[in-house]
Amino acid sequence: MRDKPRRSRSRQTAYRGTSFVARRVVLGAAQTVAVVLLVFALTEALPGDAAVALAGDQPDPARIAAIREAMDLDRPAHERLADWTTGLLHGDFGTSLTSGRPVTQYIADGFGPTLILATLTLALLVPLGFGLGVLAARHEGRLVDRLVSSVTLAVYAVPEFALGVLLVTVLALKLAWLPPTAVGHGTDLLAQPAVLVLPVLVLLSRPVCSLSRLVRAGMVDALASPYAAHARRYGVPGARVRYAHALPNALAPAVQQLARTVDWLLCGVIVVEALFVIPGLGTVLLNAVAERDVPVVQGLAVVFGVLTVVLNLGADLVAHRLTPRAGVAA
Q1: What's 68-116 look like in SS3?
Q2: What is the pTM of this model?
Q3: Has residue 282 got a pLDDT over 70?
Q4: Please, are residues 203 and 117 in contact by the beta-carbon 8 Å criterion?
Q5: E strand residue ranges, 187-319
Q6: pLDDT tens-digit profile of 132-180?
Q7: How far is 165 from 118, CA to CA, in rounded Å?
Q8: Among 116, 140, 215, 266, which one is least packed by beta carbons within 10 Å?
Q9: What's the CA gap between 325 and 99, in Å, rounded?
């Protein structure tokens, strides 16, 4: 008789977990559709005329008309939206207005350098962020904790651009230890690893601070909880209490923070790429905006939006798996 209520509760938990996943997936799909519609609407609302901008300093009316016809700007917006979304479903992001190359080629060329920066930053972020957080939590209130908290807070307060300029000035120009930019190295950044050191340091500075403070807060709360005190009273070793009981409580918020960081590394490193002349997605976007290359801007905006939706969806599902009660409550 005792097993029947347990099986019933287990089925209810599984059902609620499946319902949670289904809701998040449906929400992610709706957000993806909203991103596509919003990107098209915003590019339509841009001031000026792309045909006039592409026609040159002294545009000829006949040339403007020819450009508008080639760009399908003479067609209604709803027809262009239908054609564009149909192309997106088939992996066709359109064609660049300035070069005639497929937008997917721009995305493929820029994705490699951005992915390299993101991978290297994430590979260093996880051990450093968790390590500093655990170290500060182990020495809560003592010198090590105050030192880690003070340094991470100070580093987090420095803007990325200012930190990048400082590192370039000291390490590249004054001491000549590292190259200041990636100019002349193309997209094969791994062939010259030295050009990646400064960009990775700048990209790592703020995420490692936020992640370490998040892990510290989660562990401190868990170590002060009644079940941790109960485990100590039963003679459970301190290391096991910290790593088997306290640390898992910091995993769910840490996973969500990592998802936001990955999203930022793939979609929001425009300042760092521009500062160090990294030919990644951020540089491609800046060039496209400067040239009013609307199809490239639209394609990159869709890629960034979909990446954000997918990464946050994955983080929600992982956090739900780590903390099923929170997921059920949600």
Answers
A1: HHHCCCCCCHHHHHHHHHHHHHCCCCCECCCCCCEHHHHHHHHHHHHHH
A2: 0.79
A3: yes
A4: yes
A5: none
A6: 988 998 888 899 999 999 999 999 988 888 998 999 999 888 888 888 8
A7: 20
A8: 140
A9: 53
